[in-house]
Every structure is written in structure tokens, then in C-alpha cells.
Amino acid sequence: MSDLHIIILGPPGSGKGTQAQRIASGMGLKHLSTGDLLRDSVADGKELGTKARAFMERGLLVPDEIILGLIKGELASLNGEGWILDGFPRTQLQAEALSEILEEKGVDIDHILLIDVDPDVVVRRVLGRRVCQDCNAVYNTATLEEGKKEICGKCGGRLVKRADDEEDTIRRRFEVYKEQTSPVLGYYDKRYGGHITIEGAGDIDEITAEIIRKIK
Ligand code: ADP
Ligand code: ZN
Questions:
Q1: Out of 62, 90, 157, 207, which could bridge 152 as a Cys pair, Cβ 3.0 to 4.6 Å?
Q2: pLDDT per residue over 110-139, tens digit each?
Q3: CA 178, CA 9: separation in Å to the nearest integer?
């Protein structure tokens, strides 16, 4: 178990979700992904999910007040344990709101990680991405064995393509990232004097190892 508090940022398809899951299970951190929380609430037919869905499918950000409503309860229920935040904050306003919540709790952020990757690599990757409907594990058709492309190796759930993983939507998400999420890095650089950049184009295991080396 670790009590580190980590934020992982990066463009859509950079692999930040995959890496966040691995680091969380490897280091005993709670993995908090706003994308997973949103998709779960869409799948459960919750009101919040219904509101969020239209934005997600178009590759747009879900409005800040919906996201804050979703994440505040999650953060409030954590006490003393370490966590890795994946997909949040994604706007300057969300970053400021997070700072306020953490100040109230007396919690500091230990590391800001940026997974950096080229847009063309992202498009190729995202088109092959499949996620488990039941446990949210992430796979890619490029590395799934023939005949096993539809079943989760972890829980036996069905692997599906995300509704926002279509080429034009991915390109839009990249634009949204540049315009609305990159400023969050600037915010943290000013506040904490920097971040750790990880090259996201390499081998998944090596990237995980590099991250763990850099944050230990
Ligand atoms: P990716 O990083 O590959 O885009 P995510 O699972 O993190 O995937 O997010 C999927 C979608 O969920 C986003 O395109 C956006 O519509 C919505 N979303 C997730 N987190 C946030 C957030 N913090 N603020 C606004 N929208 C969000
Ligand atoms: Zn599964």
C-alpha cells in the first residue's frame, strides 16, 4: 500500500487509463477515473449518465458541474489512502476546484504525470481499443489473440468498442485536449514547479516500469 497522490494527464488514447490501472494495482493506490465513472453511470441509466452521454459521444467535455458532482463524493469518501486521478482535472476550473477540495482535506499532490504521444499513434490505437463491459479493463485488438477478441481475460465479460472511439470523434477529442486540458499542465507547473513527462509511444510494460521508477 502506498499513500501517494498522483494525477495523470495526457491526450485521449495516450494510454493514461491503462497505465493508471497498472500503477494503482501495482502500488496499492485507488484508481479514480472520471471516464469510467461516467461510462458506469451511462450503463446504469442514471440521470447524470443520461446528461453526460451526448457530450461524450460527440467527443466534447462533459460540463464541469456534472463532473464535479461526480468526483466530489468519490474524493470525500477517501481517507488516508493513496490515489491516482485519471481523466480529472481536465479544465482549469476543475483543477481549481480540486485544489480547494484537497486543501480542505489537508492532502497534497505528490506527482503530476504527463503521458506524451503523437496524434497519429493515438488514432491508430484508439480505433483498436476494446473495453470490458463489466470490469473496465482495456485491451487492443492488435494484441488480443485470434478468437479471443471479444472476451475479457480478467473476468469473462464482453469486450466492446467505446461509443466515442470513432476516427472523427478521436480527432475532435484531441483538439479539445489541446484547447481545454493543456492549460491544466500550466496551472500545475506554476503551482508545483513542474511535472514528469513520460514518452507514451513505447511498450506498455516498459512505460509502467518507467513511471514506477520515476515516482518512487
Ligand atoms: P480519453 O482520455 O481516452 O478521452 P476518458 O475515459 O478519460 O478517455 O474520457 C472519455 C470522455 O468522458 C471524454 O471525452 C469526456 O467527454 C468525458 N470526460 C471524462 N472525464 C472528464 C472530465 N474531467 N471533464 C469533462 N469530461 C470528461
Ligand atoms: Zn472484465
A1: 157
A2: 999 999 998 888 888 899 999 999 999 999
A3: 12
